[in-house]
Amino acid sequence: MRTPSQRCILVTGATSGLGRALAHQLAKTGSRVLIHGRSAELAEQTRAEIAAATGSDRLDVVLADLAELRQVERLANDVQLRCDQLDVLVNNAGIGSGPPGGGREESPDGIELRFAVNYLAGYHLTHLLQPLLLASAPARVVNVASAGQHPIDFDDPMMTENYIGARAYAQSKLAQIMFTFDLAEQLRGHGVTVNALHPATYMNTAMVREAGVSPLGTIAEGVEATMRLVADPGLDEVTGEYFHGTRACRALEQAYDEQDRTRLRELSGKLVERARG
Length: 277
Known about the structure:
Layout: E1 8-11, H1 17-28, E2 32-37, H2 40-54, E3 59-63, H3 69-82, E4 88-91, H4 113-135, E5 139-144, H5 165-187, E6 192-198, H6 206-210, H7 219-231, E7 242-244, E8 247-249, H8 258-276
Parallel strand pairs: 1-2, 1-4, 2-3, 4-5, 5-6, 6-7
Antiparallel strand pairs: 7-8
Helix pairs in contact: 1-2, 1-7, 3-4, 4-5
């Protein structure tokens, strides 16, 4: 890989929690960091605070509400207009299971909200940025998933019946890992690695607090594990893996089922096409 000061890295969901702390750490290395957020005000505040703390003048703001696939497309276009190289894409943005007892929600595209934000946005963004990543090789895709995983019910993937927020979250995270394995195979030998990780357990983030869960792990632990996948030269050739922290680990069995991964690809393609009209 290029040296840290030569790298350009996009971090989605970079205005709070793990994403913000990761962007801060990357800025300290001298990398150019694209700070993604939904709110222009919050994203600019994040950029200014990281710049003041690190002295970095290589921070850019990119905006999109990832719940809406047309905004995902605008984000990809914005990145490509700003950058002639993208060394690392960190698909970190996500929403948790919601407050205890919370009901089912849909994205503006009519997709179950956690599936839309946690999985489908990253799926679509990565495919749109794939030409830039390939042109920038060696490059990396890092998908921030979770140890909380649940099999996808392809008879009701949008969970229109028997909705449970924690299950919706866990299903979306397994979908991320299934996508990781698929894309890694597709890009093997082309200089772009694709890996997923569970950064740390119940970090002290707004997502965890909203769910009414007492934090266990720390954001610092999550940053350490994620930075390893972003920048460790020892992982230059490692692709198609799922990590629990810094340890290679086995995901839920459905992630290794090629037939179900095909079903997920087909479903994802249909949902993207439907959203694009």
